[in-house]
C-alpha cells in the first residue's frame, strides 16, 4: 500500500490533518488502534479557542459546530467563595471561546472523511515506523489478522501520549521535559442543565473544582482528587456534596442530575523536543501534554496540525521544504507559552499539600486579588485563555 502521508492516530489531530491535506489534494492513510465507536465516545476536551474554530471552518467541518457550539464571552475565577468574572471578549478585542465537545469534533471529521472516501483503518495493532531518516518511510501494522506495509513520503505521529511514534525518534536526539502533579481530576458528565452559562474555576480549601458544560442539557464538572483514588471511592452522592461545597456561594447553588460518565485523570505537563526527525512529524499529545486547567490540549493539537498541513502543502505544491524544516521550532514556541499558562492556572487554582501549603495559599490569594484589581492581570489571563493569535 502507498500514500503520500501516513497518519498514526485518528484522534482530533490525525483526523483534522487528513482532512486539511485532502482539501489540498494530498493523499493520506490514517491508522487507529481503537474502534471508530470508541474514539467517538471518548469524553475529553470541550473548550475551543477562536483560532481552533477558524481552522475547523477552513477545514469545512464546522457546520454542526456553528449550530450547536456555544460561544462564551467570559469566564469566572473563584477564591474562597468570592467570584470574579473575567470579560474575555471585552479584554481581547471581541475574541471568544466556543464550548463544543471534542467527541463531536472527531465525529464531524470522521463523517466527512468517510463521505469523501478517505482511507481510515480502525482497530489496527502492532504499528511500527521505520526508515524515517530515508526518503521512503514504511509503517507496518496488523489489520484483520494480516500484516501490512504502508509506504509513504512522510509520517505524522498523531498517536497521543501513549503512542509509538515518539519513540521512533532516536534517544540521542530526543529531550523530554516533564512535571507530574501530585493530584488528578475526577470528571463527570451529568444530564442536567448547566448552573451557569459560563465556566467557573474555583479554589476552595478542600481543593479545586470546575463547573463546565457541553450543551443546554449537559453539565461537565471536575474535582481535584488523589489520582490513585479508585473510582468506587467516589459514589455520586459524595461527588455532588463536594462539588456543592467547593463551587457554592451564598447566592448560587449547583443543579444536580444523573451522572452518565465518570473518570479520574492524572495531571501532567510534558514536552518532547524536537517535534520532528527525518520524515516523522509529531503533532498533538504525542509531543506534549498540558494539565487541563487552561483547556489547551485540543487547541494545541489543532495548532500543530494546521502548521503541518501548511508545510506539507508548500512542499507538494511549491517544492519548498522550509515549513517542514522549521515545523518543530515554530510549534515549540506556542507549546511553551501554553505550557506556562496551563501550569500558572493550575498553580493558582489547586490545593497544594506539604510544608509550604500555608505560604502557597497566601500567594494564591494575592494572585486572585491582583486579578480582581488590575485590568492588566485580567487581560493576561483573557488573552491566553482565548488563545494568542501570533505565537
Ligand atoms: C481524560 C482526558 C480528559 C481531557 N480533558 C481535557 C479538557 O477538558 N480540555 C482540554 O483542552 N484537553 C483535555 N484533554 C486533552 C485533549 O483531549 C487532548 O489534548 C487531545 O485529545 C489531543 O488530541 P490528539 O489527537 O493529539 O491525541 P488523542 O486524542 O490522544 O488521539 C490519539 C489517537 O491515537 C490512537 N493511538 C494511540 N496509539 C496508537 C498506536 N500505537 N497505533 C494506532 N493508533 C494509536 C489513540 O487511540 C487515539 O485515538 C483531556 C485528555 C484526557 C486523556
From TrEMBL:
Pfam families named in the record: FAD_binding_3
Every FAD-binding domain range: 2-341
Gene3D superfamilies linked: D-Amino Acid Oxidase, subunit A, domain 2, FAD/NAD(P)-binding domain
Natural source organism: Actinopolyspora biskrensis
Membrane-spanning segments: none
Protein name: p-hydroxybenzoate 3-monooxygenase
NCBIfam families given in the database record: pbenz_hydroxyl, PRK08243.1
EC number(s) stated in the UniProt entry for this protein: 1.14.13.2
GO term, biological process aspect, one: benzoate catabolic process
Keywords per UniProt: FAD, Flavoprotein, Monooxygenase, Oxidoreductase
InterPro entries named among the record's database cross-references: FAD-bd, FAD/NAD-bd_sf, HB_mOase, RIFMO-like
Enzyme's top EC category: oxidoreductase
GO molecular function per UniProt: 4-hydroxybenzoate 3-monooxygenase activity; FAD binding
UniProt keyword annotation of Oxidoreductase present: yes
Amino acid at each position: 500500500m502507498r500514500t503520500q502521508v501516513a497518519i498514526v492516530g485518528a484522534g482530533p489531530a490525525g483526523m483534522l490533518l487528513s482532512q486539511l491535506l485532502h482539501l489540498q489534494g494530498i493523499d493520506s492513510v490514517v491508522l487507529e488502534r481503537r474502534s471508530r465507536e470508541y474514539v467517538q465516545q471518548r469524553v475529553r476536551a470541550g473548550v475551543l479557542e477562536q483560532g481552533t474554530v477558524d481552522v475547523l471552518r477552513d477545514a469545512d467541518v464546522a457546520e454542526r459546530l456553528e449550530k450547536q457550539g456555544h460561544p462564551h464571552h467570559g469566564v469566572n475565577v473563584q477564591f474562597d467563595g468570592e467570584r470574579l468574572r473575567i470579560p474575555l471578549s471585552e479584554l481581547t478585542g471581541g475574541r471568544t471561546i466556543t464550548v463544543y465537545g471534542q467527541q463531536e469534533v472527531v465525529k464531524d471529521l470522521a463523517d466527512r472523511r468517510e463521505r469523501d472516501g478517505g482511507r481510515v483503518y480502525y482497530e489496527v495493532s502492532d504499528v511500527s515506523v521505520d526508515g524515517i531518516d530515508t526518503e521512503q518511510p514504511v509503517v507496518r501494522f496488523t489489520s484483520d489478522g494480516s500484516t501490512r506495509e504502508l509506504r509513504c513520503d512522510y509520517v505524522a505521529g498523531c498517536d497521543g501520549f501513549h503512542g509509538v511514534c515518539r519513540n521512533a525518534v532516536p534517544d540521542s536526539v530526543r529531550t523530554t521535559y516533564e512535571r507530574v502533579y501530585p493530584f488528578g481530576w475526577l470528571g463527570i458528565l451529568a444530564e442536567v442543565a448547566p448552573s451557569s452559562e459560563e465556566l467557573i474555576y474555583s479554589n476552595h480549601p478542600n481543593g479545586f473544582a470546575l463547573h463546565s458544560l457541553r450543551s443546554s442539557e449537559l453539565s461537565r464538572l471536575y474535582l481535584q482528587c488523589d489520582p490513585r483514588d479508585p473510582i468506587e471511592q467516589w459514589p455520586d452522592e459524595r461527588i455532588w456534596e463536594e462539588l456543592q461545597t467547593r463551587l457554592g456561594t451564598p447566592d448560587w447553588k449547583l443543579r444536580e442530575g444523573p451522572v452518565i460518565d465518570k473518570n479520574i485523570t492524572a495531571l501532567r505537563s510534558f514536552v518532547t523536543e524536537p517535534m520532528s526527525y527525518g520524515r516523522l512529524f509529531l503533532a498533538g499529545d504525542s509531543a506534549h501534554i498540558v494539565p487541563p486547567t487552561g483547556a489547551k490540549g485540543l487547541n494545541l493539537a489543532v495548532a500543530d496540525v494546521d502548521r503541518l498541513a501548511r508545510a506539507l502543502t508548500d512542499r507538494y505544491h511549491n517544492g519548498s521544504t522550509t515549513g517542514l524544516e522549521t515545523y518543530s521550532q515554530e510549534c515549540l514556541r506556542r507549546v511553551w507559552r501554553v505550557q506556562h499558562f496551563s501550569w500558572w492556572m493550575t498553580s493558582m487554582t489547586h490545593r497544594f499539600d506539604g510544608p509550604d501549603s500555608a505560604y502557597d495559599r497566601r500567594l494564591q490569594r494575592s494572585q486572585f486579588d491582583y486579578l480582581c484589581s488590575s485590568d492588566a492581570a485580567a487581560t493576561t489571563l483573557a488573552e491566553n485563555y482565548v488563545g494568542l493569535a501570533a505565537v
